[in-house]
Amino acid sequence: MRGNPHRPPGPRRRWFQMPYRFNLAAPLAISATSLSTKFGSMTDTTDSLRASTILIVDDEPANVSLLERILKREGFTALISTTEPREALRLFREHPVDLVLLDLMMPDLDGFALLETFARLIPDNSYLPILVLTADATLPTRRRALSLGAKDFLTKPFDAIEAVLRIFNLLETRMLTLELARHGLATPRSERPRID
C-alpha cells in the first residue's frame, strides 16, 4: 500500500497554498473594515490604535531603531523610546502611555525591576499592557515576567508581522477596557502569583 495509511481514500485536498510570501517592507493589511467586524460601529478603530502612545525600552539602539521602523511603517506616530532603563521611569511618569515594549536584560536596571516599578505606578482597575521582548526564552524567565505584570512575551529575534499583530491585539484590549471604564464598568485588577 502506497501513501499514508491514516489518510482516508479519495482525492487529496489542499488546505493551503505554499509558499506564502510576505513583503516586510509594506504595511499589513489591517483596516478599519477588518477591525470594525470586531467592534461594530467603531469604524475609526485602526486610526485610534495607531494614535496610541508606545514606550520602547531596550538598551540596544539597533533594537529600538528596528521597532521604531516597524511601528512607523504601520502608521504609529506617538513613539517614545529610550536605551536607558532609568530614563524609562521618567518617561513612563511624564507621558500617558498605552503600551510598553520592554527588554528584560539591561544593565543597571533590568526589565524585571522596571516591571515591578511600572506595576506600582499603574492605577488599580487599569489595563496598561507591557509586551516583553527578550532573547531569554527560558520558562522561568517567561513565568517571572508574566507574574510581574507583562501581558505578552516575544522572543528575540522576533517576527515583525507577529510583533505588529500582538501590538494591535494588546492595544485593542486596552481600548476596550478604557471604553468600559468610560461607562462605569471598570475591570478589577487580579492578584497574580509572584514568581521570583
Protein traits:
196 residues; alpha/beta; five-stranded parallel beta sheet; 41% helix; 12% strand; globular
The succession of helices and strands, N to C, reads HHEHEHEHEHEH
How much of the sequence lies in strands comes to 5-15%
> What strand order characterises the main sheet?
2-1-3-4-5
For this entry, what is the oligomeric state of its chains?
A: single chain
The largest β sheet comes out as: 5 strands, parallel
Overall residue-averaged pLDDT value: 81
What would you call the shape? globular
Helix content class = 40-55%
In whole angstroms, the N-to-C terminal distance is: 56 Å
SS-based class: alpha/beta
Report the count of strand segments.
Answer: 5
Q: Rg from C-alpha positions?
A: 20 Å
Q: Figure out the total of helices.
A: 7
Taking pLDDT < 50 over at least 5 consecutive residues as the criterion, the unreliable ranges are 4-8, 12-24, 31-43
Give a short synopsis of this structure.
By secondary structure, the chain is α/β, with parallel strands linked by helices. 41% of the residues lie in helices and 12% in strands. It is built from seven helices and five strands, in the order ααβαβαβαβαβα.
